[in-house]
Amino acid sequence: MINNILEREVYMKKLLFKILSIFVLLVIVFSQNVIYATEFIWSNYDETMLTSVNENETGNFLNLESESAILIEQNSGKVLYEHNIHEKLRPASVTKVMTILLIMEALDSGQISLDTKIPCSENATKMGGSQIWLDPREELTVHEMLKAICVVSANDCTVAMAEYLAGDEEQFVVRMNEKAKQLGMNDTTFKNCHGIDEDGHLTSSYDIAIMSRELLTNHPDITNYTTIWMDSLRDR
After folding, report:
1. From 78, 96, 147, 179, the catalytic residue
2. Predicted confidence band at 9 (pLDDT cuts at 50, 70, 90)?
3. What is the CATH number of domain 92-226?
4. pTM > 0.70
5. Residue 181 annotated among the catalytic residues of the structure
6. Is 113 an annotated catalytic residue?
7. Where along the chain do the CATH 3.40.710.10 domains lie?
C-alpha cells in the first residue's frame, strides 16, 4: 500500500513537472514571437475578455492534442494563445481552483484563520478518489487543509472545508456558481466542490483562466501551498 502511494506521488510530481515545462515553453515562444499578439484586453471581471484576433492568428497552430487551450499573461490578462477556449469540458480537480479561491476569501474576510480547526464529517470521508483518508474523529487546521488540497488534491479535505464554510456542500456549490457568475465565467456550471465527474459539471479553458488569474492576483499567498514539493501532515 505504502509503495503504491509513493509511486503515485512520484508519477504526479513528474506529470506536474511536464505540464509546467510546457507552460514555460509557451511563454518563451510567445515572448520571442510578438507577431502572434495584437491588442488583447482583459476587461473587468463582471464583463468578458475582449480580443481582437486576425484570421491567421486563430486555430490550433501549435498543433496541440488537447481539446481546448489558453495561455494568458497574468498581470495584464493578455491572451497569448487560444484554441477552442469556450469548449465546455469536465474540469476534474481543476474545480478546486474555485474552492481554494473561496477559502482564501474567507481567510481575508476574517471568517476563518489558518489556525481554525476544521472537523471532518462522515460525508467527507466517503468522497473517494484523491484523499488523505480523514477520520471523523480528527480535526485539521485550515493551514493543513490547504496543504492537503493543493498538494494532494484531497477530495475529503475539500468537502470538509466546504461544509465548514457554508454548512453543507450544496450551499458551498451555490457560492461557487455565484462567484463564477460574478467573474464572468459564462461557460461554467459547478455541481460539486471537488471535481469528480458529474452530469452538467462543466467549464472551459477560458473560464479556468479567469478564476486562476483572480486567485493568483488577489491571493498570492496561495503560492505558499501550490509550490510545495514535499511535506507532511499530522506530524508524521
Report:
1. 96
2. low
3. 3.40.710.10
4. yes
5. no
6. no
7. 92-226
